[in-house]
Amino acid sequence: MGEPGIGKTRILEELAGEARQVRQGFHGEEVQRAQRGRHDVPVVVRHPESERGALADLDDVAIRTPAGALVPLWTVARAELGRSSATVQRADRKRMLRVTADVDARVANANEIIDGLATSVLPRIVADHPGVGVSLEGQRREQSDFMDLITRGALLGLLAVYALLAIPLRS
Predict the structure, then answer these.
(1) Exposure of 88 by Cβ count < 10 A (0-12 exposed, 13-18 middle, 19+ buried)?
(2) CB count, 10 Å around CB of 6?
């Protein structure tokens, strides 16, 4: 039957592949280097300028599915206009990239998605790019902090109960 979360991991990998396709189409992908005299010239493949000059061109982007079919981007993803950071963010003097997502609880469980990322996708990213570190924040961080607080509170509560029982029993 397989491990739990494998299906969600496959979905996450497919979404990463779709995002890569959009990036390659608009920004370009170096496919080879050509020697021209003494210089190495990169050969970059991307959509023609007329197909990547406006934000509305995202509506016409075709994504190749794992089955090989071409489908419009809007059938597999939702793009929203938003603001990006105008500055380089840093934490402990290191450059930081923040990736966020809103999870529809009716469709997926955030903990399963994070577990899938932490066990399959993130280790590969760290292995492929030495010097890259990963830190899970947000809801997962809040859950971890809350569990630490509950554990400390439970220990203090047990100690208080023991002390209150020890006083009248004189032991």
Answers:
(1) exposed
(2) 13
Which tokens hold the place of 78? 């939702």
How does pLDDT run across 53-111, given as a tens digit for each residue?
Answer: 787 777 778 888 878 888 888 787 777 777 766 677 777 787 777 777 777 888 888 78
Q: Position of tokens 């859950």?
A: 143
Q: In degrees rounded to 5, what are phi and psi of residue 31?
A: -105, -25
CB 60 within 8 A of CB 72: yes
**Helix H or strand E segment including 40:** strand 39-45
Is pTM, for the whole model, over 0.70? no
Instruction: Give the C-alpha separation, 107 to 7, whole Å.
Output: 13
State phi, psi for 90 to the nearest 5 degrees.
-135, 150
Is the separation of the CB atoms in 63 and 23 below 8 Å?
no
